[in-house]
Amino acid sequence: MPLVTPLSADHDQETKKLAEFFNETLGFCPNSVLTMQRRPAISKAFINLNMAVMANEGKVTSALKRMIAWVSSNATGCRYCQAHAIRAAERYGAEQEQLDNIWEYRTHPAFNEAERAALDFSLAASQVPNAVDETIKKRLHKYWDEGEIVEMLGVISLFGYLNRWNDSMGTSIESGAVESGEQYLGKHGWEKGKHI
Hints:
Layout: H1 13-18, H2 21-25, H3 31-36, H4 40-54, H5 62-76, H6 79-91, H7 96-100, H8 113-126, H9 134-143, H10 146-169, H11 175-185
């Protein structure tokens, strides 16, 4: 059982309208948003932040942003967000080989060096204590401009919020996210955990 029960998608009409964004991203409105709408200012601010963070203004693709989110969620252990991130990566065109081998991004040939630098940044920035150091900085600047690095850290920070929210809430995971989690992450032990 979640800490707080999600409300109906019809509870707040402004949130409902904004949440249409997630129909493209995930194919459903996440239970996390349905819980946030108990305070509609939070749900609306969150959705607007999510749309701003996930907008593409440089060469950081939508698929890479979702893989950055997966690495961040994997580092913090949020199974809910892991499944959502891998599902969104799939829906935004991540290569099948990358989806199947996300756990091995550091060595698998499906990932190039620029992607590895971004994903290593996600891992380092998601750890406590923070592990972003001069080596990470140099690798990032080799492949990405400062605006793109801001986009990446926006994703990592957004998922820091989501990882805390969903793991603390024990947010019930939706069937579509479960399917993606089992398909791409199950072979490495992914399971719903407390997100039933």
